[in-house]
């Protein structure tokens, strides 16, 4: 008995197989049972011996069978995975927690604090001799005893401890964000499935389960997940631009260029391929391995490679050009900047970026002025008023004061910059993404969430999005007779019925089929293209079986296939008849196919002439009435072609013409029951919904009316693609924005449109300036050619069920249920993100304004800040982290859809929010200053003002700190409402996170005050003092009602803040440069953080520059035109780090030249 193909181990070479008498086995007649196609089988030459073709060699080598495919035996598949590898490219190793801690330590503000704390800590151990205290002034004198003086190190240690806490919290947040991003990536990868043939059955499997030797079905729109050899193809064209950079589509065929490579896109046609390489052995894997994916050894290049090595949530990784071996990294970088269009920053990012920079600058100015005033005050009082001389032994004492002043200045800066805001953005987006998954929105790009909140227009497909995508034939025109319901087979001529069944069965993708229902009594399952499934269902309704026809004419016997695409709007298939002649079957949009028909089958099944006037009459009496009923009309036709001479199959125009019309059918696709209400919600929310479809204009208009997109009496436009193009183009055929602007505001339906028309419309709306606000456009798409429109849109929605891989890759959000109502949920979540950020901003800025003014004023008047550095770190860095979590996790409500979109140019901080911030700041400042200057009299306690260094914590300042924190806690409840609502408790119990955080923060505050002691500069308070603090805090809620009573319209003096960045904003360029050096997960989740300390980072440049300055101090009189130049190195005698701030002030704020002139004079 001859050995079987499966008797030999995987991976045997052809030579070794032949050496084992495999050629004898191949001669066996049974060979053709697993190599059915003549194109794939063993071929005979004229001399008689057998010759193996390349596909056959591959099948032998991989022990694969065509067409039945591999066995679905788990053991066999696992063996293949072990031998050839799995179809998985390991991602780059995530950053460890320690790496994230190190990155958090790079923060400029924290570095400054660390330096100040270390200096303070070092100097606290130095105590000058007692007799010299009089010489040094009030350096060591005061109410403190020796024990308290020895405890001076505690403040520095506490600041260091606080910095460590902040770093650990930041690192943990970053670690959580990266973990979530990878989880989202994994979820997206699991969503991608591919069709393979196993045991003669076509099944959908996750791409990760694909193994070498699989027979995969390739179709229009697929993103190839593995390398392979084409073993059967129909008009297959591949976009290999991701590998080669060439945009022209490459035609693939079995005998010419059969190699298919992973990461490339199928743009036309269909076929089958034998998988030859997966995972890291595929073309994608090889390139990713070279770029360091999955390797830990190229850590130095991580930042540079990560932008290339990881795509934005792409399911199957797209290729990037390889770096040249000669180190063409600079060249590649330049190409990136020149060729890769960077997507515009989202609306919220733009506003937050500008607001953050403004706040950062203001905070820097305030902190620098605070340090300068404290230094001036001390220098004037000590060396001018008291006329003391700087003795060398007094230097440590004075430096301790300078460090204290500097720490105060840094804490003012820390409070001024809202570090919690990036965290609030991240938490809000992450929370929304997680919840949106349950609402059938799989978010691929996080910023798409909040962008949807600003959407003003939605351009939606019809089929499957507005309709159920459950298509059925309900009307037909056959044999000169129109049937308003499915005809009985006896009513149709037998000859016509036979050719109709063959035309539908053969001229449809063989992957489209009708399957039995999952449960008894339910409808049959439609698998594959829904329009083709409707036609196959029509065959079954005519009591015929399409499967029998397909068995007689298997897919391998199809001679030529002209697959459907958006240009043809039809599909044609050629088969060879038994007599050697050819028959072409064609189906497609009725108007297009009828134009190619010269004959039509009459009632007797015989062809008769079909003239243009007959066609016009048929359009008027058959097609338009069907379309007005909301039906999609499909024409089915055929043509017989002679084999001698054989036609030129590449000349499609000559082949698909002079057809004979068999029938025209009307396909119903019912509107989803929830869609009309969803569209009403959109319109109420100020969002215009437009339908962009490839259907007949009458069908599109009827469906639009059913959905509520167009209403009787409204002023709207419904256009076909050709009319649309005619109106927007000039005599030269060029698109003019002015022409588009005349059309799009009224346009509601665009029918018979191509993907190019959709892209033109979307671009025209986005680029338009006729409206006061720039339009924010969302687009839905499912086809490969929808990619450009999805990319151009502010938010691209791809269909999860009907969408192609290319469309999904180009999208921002994938609709897992292909349902329009899910888009409305995305709008609601987007607006909720925007509101969550605004709530946190209202709360955060109130804290910032009050804390900065208190610290600044207190420092200037009392030479000390009422709020100590550690206290402010608790308020700003710790408490705000929890506040961002509390306010960013508010669930959305239907009321969000009752107002218009914010708009791109609307300010982030509205006048109502500004009223709330100002009003609460006035209340808090009044309370704080009253306690600061009269608190000791009110509570009959010791005065805490002007306390010397290292003095014990006072009850006075503890009450101020406690009252400040409690006011923030109750103001956090006020911040839940930002549009002037009175009931701030509405829905508070629906957010347990908020309640837990408020109560938890209060509990921690009690512990800090009662047991914090010296590290937190707190003295324990009694019950009466606590009750007064609580009373003042609750007053925030009452004061909030007073503020809500004041009409915002009467407060003309209030300005809005947080407008979108201007066109000339240079930050876009700076951000683009920075993004190349930032890890992908951080870039996706931490974009806001990149810019928070942009102003501070520039200080480092100033310090570097200062080394080139002359080593002298120049003094200019106040009237001199030139600004004075102060050498920072000289001023290091006071304190090394404050000089950086001073130098920054001098070089950037020339208006302060007089102050600096005096300072320079006094230091001399």
TrEMBL record:
Belongs to the cation transport ATPase (P-type) (TC 3.A.3) family. Type IIB subfamily. Residues 1088-1104 form the Plasma membrane calcium transporting P-type ATPase C-terminal domain. Keywords: ATP-binding, Calcium, Calcium transport, Calmodulin-binding, Cell membrane, Coiled coil, Ion transport, Magnesium, Membrane, Metal-binding, Nucleotide-binding, Phosphoprotein, Translocase, Transmembrane, Transmembrane helix, Transport. One of its GO terms (biological process) is regulation of cytosolic calcium ion concentration. One of its GO terms (cellular component) is plasma membrane. Pfam families: ATP_Ca_trans_C, Cation_ATPase, Cation_ATPase_C, Cation_ATPase_N, E1-E2_ATPase, Hydrolase_3. The gene is LOC108939261. Residues 865-1043 form the Cation-transporting P-type ATPase C-terminal domain. It catalyses: Ca(2+)(in) + ATP + H2O = Ca(2+)(out) + ADP + phosphate + H(+). It is a multi-pass membrane protein. This is Calcium-transporting ATPase.
